[in-house]
Amino acid sequence: MPPRCDAVLAFEDSSGVIQEAARAFLAQRPEAQIEFAAAPPGQCHLVFRGKNAHGSQPWEGRNAARDAARFLAGLGLCGPRADFVRAIATLAEDDFGGPLGIAATHEFIGPATQNLGILTVGQGAARAVFNTRPTQGQKPGELLEIIRRSAAEAAPRGLEIAVEMEARPCESLFVDPARHSGFIGALQSAYHAVTGREPKLSACTGTTFAKAFPRAVCFGPSDPADEPLLAHQADERVLVSSALRNVRIYGAALALLAAE
After folding, report:
1. Are 239 and 217 in contact (CB under 8 A)?
2. For the whole prediction, is pTM greater than 0.85?
């Protein structure tokens, strides 16, 4: 999730219209941050600041690109670039893909999510990259067609928005404990033996391991019982003691599985 977004307008705010609009915007969204940076004559430079968060948990952060799109959409600017920004502001409005048409949830995995990761608007072209994460049962190919229709509906007459997949899509991964009781049971036993805590099954965000290894399951590296989860956030880190604890869990799990 972008913690900063810069917007440079090709006119000066000599009458204070932009500053007044910024004050009104911040009154409605006090969590947002807007700064006015130094700019050459004939330009107005705004800096929107947010808060880092993992792409699968956008509600934990503050999306600076979405704030920029929302603000610019409300200025009443004209032209295809302004129309594009207004369409993107509409499509990015919530964290769960409602305006994109992909909102759905699963009782264990949780909801589908989206966040506006990149927004670039220049003289010759405009581009927005959405980080979409489907939930269980959603097919990436079907979602692509749904998003295309949603983008076409959000675009005003005369503006065409092309929608393409930028990376290889992955479906949500769910390892059913009922079907893999021996494997999951060994992991739970290892966790309990090392930590002394009762193991609880929960959905894990992100797809890093799932993209690399079929049916992958792993611990950590952070346990919210011991430390805050700071993945993709400011001051991202993990305790050395947590990493060593995980090595012990892995060793115990491998021993249990090898004994079967």
Report:
1. no
2. no
